[in-house]
TrEMBL record:
One of its GO terms (biological process) is tRNA queuosine(34) biosynthetic process. One of its GO terms (molecular function) is epoxyqueuosine reductase activity. NCBIfam families: tRNA epoxyqueuosine(34) reductase QueG. InterPro entries: 4Fe4S_Fe-S-bd (IPR017896), 4Fe4S_Fe_S_CS (IPR017900), ARM-like (IPR011989), ARM-type_fold (IPR016024), PBS_lyase_HEAT (IPR004155), QueG (IPR004453), QueG_DUF1730 (IPR013542). Keywords: 4Fe-4S, Cytoplasm, Iron, Iron-sulfur, Metal-binding, Oxidoreductase, Queuosine biosynthesis, tRNA processing. Pfam families: Fer4_16, HEAT_2, QueG_DUF1730. It comes from Desmospora activa DSM 45169. PROSITE patterns: 4FE4S_FER_1, 4FE4S_FER_2. This is Epoxyqueuosine reductase. Residues 180-209 form the 4Fe-4S ferredoxin-type domain. Signal peptide: none annotated.
Amino acid sequence: MVTPEQIKQSLIQETERLGIDKIGFASADPFLELKERLIQHRKSGFESGFEEPDLDKRTDPRLSLPNARTIIAIALAYPTRMDDPPANRPGAYRGFFCRASWGEDYHHVLRRKLEGLERHLRELVPDVTTEIMVDTGALSDRAVAERAGIGFIGKNTSLITTQFGSWVYLGEMLVDIALPPDQPVTEGCGDCTVCIDACPTGALVGPGQLNSQACLAYQTQTKGFLADEYRDLLGGYLYGYETCQAVCPFNRGKNFTHQEAFRPDPEKVKPLLKPLLTISNRQFQQRFGTMAGSWRGKKPIQRNAIIALGRFRDKSAVPDLIKLLQDDPRPVIRGTAAWALGRIGGSEAEKALMEAEQREQDSEVQKEIKRALKNRITHEKQENEQG
């Protein structure tokens, strides 16, 4: 009869064949400390709204798999650099998808790896019961990975591994058999606060504490109007934001390209901005549908592209932005186009804004148009003084 330790070692060996970078084993006991933190997190209004709302499900593995005894956690490393990335040029400015959206959607890749591990486990224990989770499951992937010894949760709230830094995707499988658990990693961030200091919105309100509502990565995924205070902070990001990872000393010099599925297509992850303004739903799905950054659809991506063009003051985009202001059925897109036209300025943009002011019926878009006309004067004055 195969022993629990033999099952564990066989699974570890199978990870090499499956191309899994790290594996760890943890008990399926409730995450009591995590639950207390989540309760305070909710009271502070720091949730994003994308999480599982039931805090018991988020912290008790047995509500996802009755009789769960062990959680098997895995991690896959992803790249941080592109070969020959396309450059920004006047009239051909580009946006940027964060590294966590490079290559094939990691949810699918991780699930395939876990399903391969599950098949191997069934060869050893035919009657085992399992439950696979990848990001969208109830449990906290980072809390599971930390308990399983894959890494530690840093002050930027990311799971940090010694070998790969925080550039890893996480997933787990609950099983109803007891396997020897691994020891949690004892390493930590020490006195370093570089991620907290670098956060442009102050979303990292303390070590390991994130106000998700203020996080730019979250803001890129919302579908409404982006608040003024975030528009100038996005840079060229279309999806996600990763300054808190980029500045982390544990991530310095890390770039792993061995996972073929995550290798980026430069034209997808750093696309031209102007074509995004007129892309159809079908074209969007054909081009970006296999990326994790497509999950919210094209609207947030288009809104963020408009903001980037406004920040770049790309005069060549004015005709496309005017068309959106005049014809797009979505108030968020019309209003954001008005903001961008106000930032870019010029007689053509001003005329379009004044005409739109007379016919626009939506109150939010009206506000954006009026502010664009007012701010246009301010921006032009500032530019003249700087020139």
